[in-house]
Amino acid sequence: MTKTTTLKPPTAAPVDKKRQEQWAELRSVFPIYLALAKRLKLAVPLSADKRNLPENPSSELFAEVETWLDSLDQQVLVHQLRQLLQMTTLNASEIGLRALIQRHLRKPSKTNTDRDKIDFLLVQYFALCAPAKIYHKQIELEDVALVMKPVLGEIDTAPLDWCEPLENIIAALSAFRSLRDMLKTNFIAQGRKVKEAAGGMFYDPSALIAFIRFNFMLRRTLIELMHADLIAIRTGLDQLESEGVRMVDCHHFGLSASESISKIQLLAQEWKQPFQPEYTERTVNETFEKLLNMRASIEAALENLRPKSISSPELSRITEALKPAPTAKPVAQKPTPGAVKAKPASKKPEPEPEPEPEPPKEAEKEAPIDFDACLEQIWEQLIATPPTRGRSMTTVKMGKARILMSSWEVSAFVSEDGPAAEDLRRAVVARAIVSSAIEAAKESGKPAGMTGALSVARSEISRLQDRVDAAKRAKDTEAAVNLGISTKRLLTTLEEAEKL
């Protein structure tokens, strides 16, 4: 009789599969941890040749990477993680963010630091993956659940009773007109109190989407209100300058009682990016307070003009211009810096002088180009309508012109800083200025305004070519390639303008 032997499948296969999934997650989050270690000047145990992790690791490498990442989790604080992700392109990796969130959610025992990291990472993921249209609507729990499905799975969107304080705060946000309105409240502290009181209930998926919605809408409102205050400041500075005011009392702002308009204008530019390098709750609140004190100083200076040179109707117009919009609107509807210009004060009737010959109409149209205002207009559009995830090109408008921006150019405006980002911003602005002049010339049939635009473009091209060469010498391949492409686009636009 023949004996039959039944072969059993190896029992180690499920373990190997689980190990491979864990390794895939470690590989996804490794670039973030490596960047954190470099930024915080922490030791990296892996030599440079080991940092490009293979698909199939040895047991030693697996254990080495896992141990190192666990140790970093204990050292890195939430504000350090926030700073890294909001100031670099690492935030643009959906896979990396998802893996980082799931890594923290799977921890069997979570500290308050783990909770705060999860809280931050979830809203970062939502901001990255939400469709652009969601930035301009009242966001509902169902909207959040749909975006977060790849991370949290199917979620019950029925409101939780203990999350009702978050809903009350969200309902109040639409009434704010200035950062001052927001800072008078303790909404941030109230939200934190609800989170801390939740205990383990915080990790319920239904609770998580409530906190994501609250955090995102609070952040969105802060940016919108900051932007409204910036518009008021820049409009007020333009008005003061047009009235011949050269100095402003800024002692409430932490400066002297006699600061030049030009210096204040320069300081106002520091708020172009909503997130500064030293990003903590304390520093952000201090930054907002400085912004509000700056606005108060400008408004006080405008008020002092009333008995001297501004007529009552004119003052009403200025005051109206300084009022921020009640809600965020497309950039095209917002007042741009320099939009409000006061007329000289009325004087006693004098004999009319002999009429002087009018300057040529072409000369009237050749207005000086405000480079910073153009940069601000582009930045406004990108903040108001963030690019859709996965899109390689983004369109902004300048006058009648539509300017296509690459992903690295968008990042230079909204998430990056440094010399290369500044060069990319300038390249885009110069291209926008020339494109706008081209469209204006086509519409009018006259090359009015073209001379200044061409001058800006030629100057920027010369500077950018030097910057590309410098990046090549520094072996910064990414910066050299990106700058080279942006410079070539500007050169092509310039050549088109020169043909008109």
Give the termini separation.
Answer: 98 Å
Number of strands: 4
Overall shape: it is: globular
Main sheet properties: 2 strands, antiparallel
Radius of gyration in whole Å, from Cα? 28 Å
How much helix, percentage-wise, in residues?
55-70%
Strand content: under 5%
Helix and strand content put the structural class at mainly alpha
Helix and strand run: HHHHHHHHHHHEEHHHHHEEHHHH
Mean pLDDT: 78
Note the total helix count: 20
The order of strands across the largest sheet is 1-2
- Low-confidence stretches at least 5 residues in length (pLDDT < 50)? 9-15, 274-279, 308-312, 321-350, 359-365
Task: Give the topology.
Elements: H1 13-39, H2 59-75, H3 78-87, H4 94-105, H5 112-129, H6 141-147, H7 149-152, H8 164-173, H9 179-183, H10 187-198, H11 205-242, E1 247-248, E2 259-260, H12 261-268, H13 281-304, H14 312-322, H15 361-365, H16 371-384, E3 393-398, E4 401-406, H17 407-414, H18 419-444, H19 450-473, H20 477-498
Antiparallel strand pairs: 1-2, 3-4
